């Protein structure tokens, strides 16, 4: 690229430290210019580690960047991302993109009105093995169902075990978007949540309806002490079955692939992508419907 995108990072927690900051700092098309977080000392430490500036306010960060990457809870991200889009900044969004369907709709509207680029960090969608499987599935066609399982103990131990929003919202909001996105991409758009149940231990089990008549089931939890975490997705139909359980591509590599797409979008003036803010809104609607179904 002739010119690097100046990107500001909002958030300085574990995921920002592990993925966002090094990815933005090391990508040839981006330059991590500023970091802002509610804890100034954390922002300063992360900025120092990657040659960036710790900003004293969010407005200070917005005034010096072309794009903003968010790594904060959904209740914080939604309003701040709307402000960024209104300021004409391109946005990289974590999932879920907001705390509610209403805020997600406002965010999608702000991005559209500002005509800026947006991508959602649906990590596995940027992995080559996922893209290859989806190509095979679409080439073969005729799939009638799928079963997905995403089982982790992230709330019990590890870098995200002290995350208040994850404890409050649970697996549906945290890993649900990843699972729904993969099932949706494989079988067609999710049009309804036929049934949803959540146990006292936070185990979600759902049945989903897809456009074209296919159905899928998905099981989600953040509260099983499994090491390593277990995730697989099996699609089946008259032509047999296919399973995605490979994690050959790391989260950091997936984020680099996301940045490849993001930089290309900004430099070409493209604002549409299979994982843009509209995708985030669609997944937010699925989350909203699943929670309402579970509550009866």
From TrEMBL:
Q: Which InterPro entries match?
A: Gfo/Idh/MocA-like_OxRdtase_N, Gfo/Idh/MocA_oxidrdct_glycsds, NAD(P)-bd_dom_sf
Question: What are the record keywords, sorted?
Answer: Oxidoreductase
Asked whether the UniProt record includes Transferase among its keywords, one would answer no
Oxidoreductase: is it a keyword of this entry? yes
Q: Where is the Gfo/Idh/MocA-like oxidoreductase N-terminal domain?
A: 5-117
GO molecular function ontology, one term from the record? oxidoreductase activity
Q: Which SUPFAM superfamilies match?
A: Glyceraldehyde-3-phosphate dehydrogenase-like, C-terminal domain, NAD(P)-binding Rossmann-fold domains
Annotated organism of origin:
Lentzea guizhouensis
> Under which name does UniProt file this protein?
Dehydrogenase
Tell me one Pfam family matched here.
GFO_IDH_MocA
**Superkingdom of the organism of origin:** Bacteria
